Amino acid sequence: MPAGNRHLIVALVAVYALVVITIVAAGIGGIMLVDTVRGYVAGEGYYSKAQKGAVIALESYTHSRDPADFAEYRRLMAVPISARRARERLEDPARPVAESHALLEAAQNHPDDVAGLAWLFRHFGETAMLAPAIAIWRDADAKIDALDETAGRLQRAVRSGGSEAAIDAHRARILALDAELTAFEAAFSESMGETARRLGRLLVFGIGGLGGALALLGSGFGIHVMRRTRAAADQIGQREERFRHIAELSADWIWESDAEHRLCFLSDRIEEVTGMPKKTFLGRRRWEIGGAECAPGWAAHAAAMQGHESLDGFEYSLPDAGGSRHFFRLNGKPIFAADGHFVGYRGTGTDVTAEVTARREAERRHELLETVFENLGHGISVVDADLRVVLFNRLFLDLLGFPADRFAPGDPFEAFLRYNAERGVYGPGDVDELVRERIALVCRPEPHRLEHAGPDGQVVEIRGQPLPSGGFVSIYRDVTAERRSQAALEASERRTRMVIDRALDAIVTIDAKGRVLEFNLAAEAIFGRSRRDVLGLPIADLVVPERHRARHLAGFARYLETGESAIIGGRVELSALHADGTEFPAELAITTGAGDDAGDEAATFIGFLRDITRRKRAEEARRRAEERLWAFLDASPEAISFKDDEGRYIMCNKAFERTVGVPKEKLVGLTDGEVLDWEPPYLEAMRRHERLAAATRQPVRQERDHVDPDGRTRTFAVTKFPILDDGDDGDGDGGIAGIGSIAQDVTGLKHTETQLRQAMKMQAIGQLTGGVSHDFNNLLAVVLGNLELLREQLGGGPGHDLAERAMAAAQRGATLTRRLLAFARQQPLKPQAVDVEALLGEMADLIRQSLGEAIGLSVRCDAGLPPCFVDMAELETALLNLAINARDAMPGGGELVFEASVAAPGALAPEVLAPGDSAPGNSAPGDSAPGNLAPGNLAPGEVGTGTAGHDTAGTRHDGAAAPGHLVITVRDTGSGMSREILDRVFEPFFTTKPVGMGSGLGLSMVYGFARQSGGHLAITSEPGRGTAVALWLPTAAGAPGAPGAPGAAKQAGAEWRAVDRRSGPAGARRGPARPARETTRSRP
Amino acid sequence: MTDRSTGTPRLLAVVDDNEEFRAIVRAVAEPIGWQVSEFSNGAELFVGLARDFRPELIMLDMVMPEMDGIETIAALGASSVRCPVILMTGRLPLYTRTADQLGRAHGIEILEILQKPVPLARLRAVLGHPAAPGR
After folding, report:
1. What is the pLDDT of residues A902-912, one digit of tens each?
2. Going by C-beta distance under 8 Å and a sequence separation of 6 or more, which residues neighbour residue B17?
3. Nearest alpha-carbon partner for A87 in A100, A106, A76, A105
4. DSSP string of A608-630?
5. What's the CA angle centered on B115, arms A1083 and A1081, to 5 degrees?
6. How close is the nearest chain B Cα to the Cα of A872, in Å?
7. What's the confidence (pLDDT) of residue A43?
8. Which of A741, A655, A618 has its CA nearest to residue A691?
9. Which pLDDT value is given to residue A1076?
């Protein structure tokens, strides 16, 4: 409704209401006024009655003079007086109207009228309606005052007992006044009546006029309202139509539901949209229709309906008859009645199937896009025309190192650049400047590409593409790994190229047709051809010697056809052709490679060729060196052999062949057990030895006795050493490839060692003994000298015998000392030619006496013994000593044999004379027990003493007469001696005899004598079988410088030492003789 | 040696660090006409020689302190003194052999080599030997 109309209507209604109110008020007021006036007029009676009553009471008083009457008068007179006072108060506008109410009541007015009267008089008192009445009243009041004044005088006259006359006068006055008053009363009433009538008329006319006005107004208003209503209805109709049109345009249907949510209205289109008749839905509640409950948000929707809230875009779906699902959207507004109670809903429904489908599709696409976007391997950012980064993905932040909590889509592009500039990504410089530069760089209107080097060495490639709408989209890609791998690949290629070019081997690649594809620097050098010249040419013509070419081509063809090749995948040695036409030995390895592409070069062959000219030479040199080595080894006296790790002989030298008596050809490839007839314990000992060397990986030396093919026992120092397998695997920690063995014949060495030990021991003892002897000699010189002087002085007198005995004792001491010195070879001997046979013969009787009867003595001498060249006295002593020792060894009797024979030439030192040789009761030769070895063999472990440095091995000789020495053997059948005793028998002061039985110097003195004489002493013994002592003495012919000093003998011994044992029997024979003679001759 | 006919005492030098042995020699030598001078080592002998002591015979021990027999022989050889010497030792014959050869090389007459202990008879024989000097 237009504002103007509304105002007009309001104004009309207001006027209308005002008029109605006025009419009503005027009506009421008028009626009240009239009523009041009438009441007041009617009240005249009261007033009159009071006045009348007062006059009556006063008149009565005049008669009765009764004060009661006067009191009555006063009481009644109060009424008009009160009325007057009320009127006076009402006439004074300053005084409140209410003040007059009590006075009015006192004036005998009805209490109900009091307020109206007061109001009337106050407001209308001076109007034409009341003014005449009031004027009358005011005049009447003057008469009232006069009456009351008269009453007062009367009272005073009564009280003063006034005359009747006076009283009568008063009475008359009273009555006159009463009459006047009554007149006034009548006038007043009339006036009031007139007033009331006027009022009535006024009311009638006023109300009638107003009623007419009202009727006029009402009819005018009604007409206006009617007109306006019609216009409004038209407007509403139009509006409703418009609304419907709009609603039907914006929605598919319109619906309404009542307070119980029952559908009470549906627009027609719902049938069209849903394909179901309206009646399907009408009268049913929303949740009775179904189909919507499943929709998301149903609960909220239902709750909203229950709560009478607006329904805003609730979507749900229903399947149609064809089964395809339709989506609907509902909107609704709650409707409330004027009093606020819920009436129902009114709303619209729309088929949003297309929209939902489209939206879902869009959402799906969006999600897909987002997923793609986020999972894109690249960072991406979109900058709009306002240079705001409206879109970016996580990787963008990660790649460029932007903190995710700091940047959000919509941030200005500059903020990103500034962040980078501030952390120095763009290098040093003013941040603003850098940012500007960068913006200028990326905001160019053409695609661009940048690389961004992150602070941690990361390289990010940035590709920018301007957008048609302005701005640009950038793709960020981490190319760090790519750059690195690219760099690595390039480096790798360079290295590969370098490897190929720097290879010392020729590397040549050919295709399946045999044409050269690759030819490295080494190939150029080796073949003398340049790469440029050979590429594409057939390899066969270039490097294969002509005579091999056909074979080469045939093999190549065969491989291509059958895949069989003798050389591919392996190494062969062949002859290669140099550009200058010469051939050289080469080692070739060929591998196959895939072709460069799938085209005609389906396969390639890579040849690695090495010029092995040098190696061949080296091999030749090594072979020769090996031959030389074996020549050396064959020349070695030591038996050398090698076995593999299974104990089979690989190689041995000639000395080994000789030692084992088996030729090399029969040994190689066989084990000890297979080829040698050694005894199992010996083989086992040797295997233990080898295992020890293998286990310790160290050379292990052991000494072992070995019976050589001649049956002689030798001592070998055998060193077994592991041959470590450090060849193929190259780790140097391989297994044991085999065992090497070096056996050194130490038989002689052992013997010499023993001798040396003995000699040194004896020398030490000798020096000691010599020192002691000297002191003894000095003492004895004094003792003996003085004793001799004493004896002379005593003459034949008393004490002479004592001196004699003392002298004899001192002489024995001197003798002992001399023997000690002799033992120590410090006493000069007096050698002479001695006929041993004669000497033995002479001594036999003496010895027999010493032996006693239980012991038989026999002396055997070879015929034609040469004389020996020794100190005869010492020889006698020595033989005697030996005899006494033998006797002491045979306490139960036995046999003592003296034998003298010429020593076998060269066999100067048969240190051990086997008892079995001649002594009875000995075991047969061949017995393995020690001491039963064949004559002439050295038995290690037995006592072996002899001339210094003499070598026994290999100087054995058959019994031809030897001019050098003769041997006197003293053999007994006594108790014999143990090994321990044998080891010590030559030590001075060593004795097996009970204390006091011997000096312990016997054997050592014999030994010293033998050695000083240029011979030696040998002893062999076996407990329980007896002892044989052989005394070797130089013959007069063989003795060193027969008439010479003892030093000559020593020198001869030294010459003996120099004799080469390999010079054979002849040399051996010559050896001892010649230097001795020469020495002798050289002597003065 | 004392010319027994003239009775002139002959001078004998006994060089030995063993005083008792010197006494024995004196006991043997004096009765047969020797005037004995004792020296305990070679150095003392040369003190005497420096005082114009000229013995007819020197008995020389080998092993002595200060100046031993071999040194004494060498020194004698180097001096102008020429008189026969008898060598004595209770020790290694090596000493006497060396002294023997050394003396011969110097032209000193080594009259005898005595091995201690020396029987008095032998001593007397040597001292009274007709070959002894001083005849």
Report:
1. 887 554 444 33
2. B40, B41, B61, B63, B64, B65
3. A100
4. EEEE-HHHHHHHHHHHHHHHHHH
5. 5
6. 20
7. 55
8. A741
9. 33
Spatial CA neighbour of A274 closest among A349, A359, A360, A358: A349
pTM: 0.31
Is A973 at the interface with chain B, CB within 8 A? no
Strand order in the sheet with A253-258: A263-266, A253-258, A342-351, A325-336, A311-319
Spatial separation of the C-alpha atoms in residues A534 and B4, rounded to whole Å: 130
**In this predicted complex, what is the ipTM?**
0.75
DSSP β-bridge partners for residue A258? A344
* C-alpha to C-alpha distances, A57 to A60, A63, A292, A451, nearest whole angstrom: 5, 10, 103, 138
Mean pLDDT of the A957-978 span: 71
Q: Do B24 and A781 touch (CB under 8 A)?
A: yes
Distance from CA of A817 to the nearest CA of B (A): 10
**Amino acid code (one letter) for A272:** E
Q: Is A778 near chain B, with CB under 8 Å?
A: yes
Alpha helices in A251-283 (DSSP H): 269-274
For residues A967, A973, A979 and A982, what is the CA-based torsion angle, rounded to 10 degrees?
-50
> What is the C-alpha separation between A18 and B5, in angstroms, rounded?
223
Q: Which has more pLDDT, A506 or A824?
A: A506
DSSP state letters, A695-748: HHTS-EEEEEEEE-TTS-EEEEEEEEEEEE--SSS-SS---EEEEEEEEEE-HH
Q: What is the mean pLDDT of residues A16-37?
A: 74
* Contact in structure between A253 and A266 (CB atoms under 8 Å): yes
| Integer Cα distance of A1051 and A1067 in angstroms | 19
Whole-angstrom Cα distance, residue A232 to residue B130?
A: 205
Most confident of A1-15, A22-36, A84-98: A84-98
Q: Between residues A457 and A310, which one has the greater pLDDT?
A: A310
Query: A781 contacts in B (CB within 8 Å)?
Result: 18, 21, 24, 90, 116-118
Quote the Cα angle for B119-B120-B126, to 5°.
95
A79: alpha, beta or left? (left if phi > 0; alpha if psi -120 to 50): alpha
**Closest to A782 (Cβ–Cβ): which among B21, B120, B123?**
B21
**A270 near A318, Cβ under 8 Å?**
no
H helices of A251-325, where?
Answer: 269-274, 286-289, 298-306
**Nearest in space to A87 (alpha carbons), one of A52, A50, A135, A143:** A135
Per-residue confidence band for B43, with pLDDT thresholds at 50, 70 and 90:
very high
Q: How is residue A616 written in tokens?
A: 């061949």
Name the CA dihedral angle for B112, B118, B120, B124, rounded to a multiple of 10 degrees.
10
What's residue B14's pLDDT? 95
Which residue in A986, A978, A985 sits closest to A930, CA to CA? Answer: A978
Smallest Cβ distance to A788: which of B18, B21, B120? B120
Residues of B in contact with A810 (CB under 8 A): 117
Q: In chain A, which residues have their Cβ closer than 8 Å to the Cβ of B93? A: 826-828
Residue A528 Ramachandran class (φ > 0 left, ψ -120 to 50 alpha, else beta)? left
- Taking residue A876's Cβ as centre, other Cβ atoms within 10 Å add up to 16
Each residue's pLDDT tens digit, A118-157: 887 788 777 777 788 788 888 888 888 888 888 888 888 8
Is the link from the previous residue into A910 a cis peptide, with omega within 30 of 0?
Answer: no
Residue A94, pLDDT above cutoff 70:
yes
State mean pLDDT over B85-91.
Answer: 86
Q: Would you tell me which residues 116-135 of chain A have a C-beta closer than 8 angstroms to some C-beta of chain B?
A: none
CA A39/CA A34 separation, integer angstroms: 8
pLDDT of A283-303, one tens digit each? Answer: 888 777 766 667 777 888 888
Distance CA B19, CA B30 (A): 16
